[in-house]
Write a structure and sequence with these properties.
Length: about 250
């Protein structure tokens, strides 16, 4: 148990996160790019044409990964917010700051690609059904978190954003189960952990690869921003000055 908490607190140390994050960032970046190329080339060029939607279905190789990722990034921020509120670890606040704009862009991309897919499938770019509306609310939660921080004093802004994120978690199960709870135009889940995929392996395998790619790339982007924020916040610390001196020969 003691070792578990030691590991937990070590990841609250800015120099440890900065230096360890570099290795993780490199790994995520390489894996993400390689998987994305594999998943997209396979899905866009070699996956068979869908018998109902034709080639328009191929947007799932972007839409589904970013839709999954938008929700996962929010859950990660909410977890960081809980850590900040309960344990007051300042690194959690930086994780939230690093993730918020990335999550907002990803959510916006999910909405746009969904609208592009919806036009040939439903005959309209947008309907106010439960899935689309709850995804739009998710975007507003991201934007609200970004707007709330500069609107409040610095000593309370982080906790206020964390509280907003934790409360907003209630929207995640609504997004997930909206197509089951209400009658919506949006189709059910493309992939389920508890069920065999309805599509052939030549379709769902590149989709899974594309999802993994997006998660890896998100890890790369978040760590890039997190390490930058750490360096800016700890610019006067000895470890930060030593790193800048070694990197730039100062």
């Amino acid at each position: 148990m003691a070792r578990t908490w030691q590991w937990f607190h070590r990841w609250g140390s800015p120099p440890h996160v900065f230096h360890a994050g570099r290795q993780w960032q490199l790994g995520f970046g390489v894996a993400g790019f390689a998987l994305l190329m594999l998943g997209w080339v396979w899905g866009l060029a070699f996956a068979p044409v869908d018998y109902q939607q034709g080639n328009s279905y191929r947007i799932i190789f972007l839409h589904v990964p970013v839709a999954f990722l938008a929700q996962s990034l929010y859950m990660a921020m909410a977890a960081a917010g809980l850590v900040l509120l309960v344990w007051k670890m300042k690194i959690a606040d930086l994780v939230i700051q690093a993730t918020l704009p990335i999550g907002a862009v990803i959510t916006f991309l999910a909405l746009v690609t969904g609208a592009i897919w919806g036009k040939p499938t439903w005959g309209t770019y947008w309907v106010w059904d439960a899935r689309l509306t709850s995804m739009l609310i998710l975007l507003f939660l991201y934007l609200g978190g970004m707007a709330l921080r500069p609107a409040l004093p610095s000593d309370v802004a982080g906790r206020a954003v964390a509280l907003l994120l934790v409360v907003g978690v209630i929207n995640i199960p609504i997004i997930k189960y909206s197509v089951e709870w209400w009658n919506t135009l949006h189709q059910g889940a493309t992939l389920k952990l508890t069920e065999r995929p309805a599509m052939p392996a030549s379709m769902w395998v590149p989709l899974v690869i594309s999802i993994l790619a997006m998660y890896c790339l998100a890890g790369f982007w978040v760590l890039q921003r997190l390490r930058t924020l750490l360096l800016l916040r700890e610019s006067k610390a000895k470890w930060a000055r030593e790193w800048v001196g070694e990197k730039y020969g100062l």
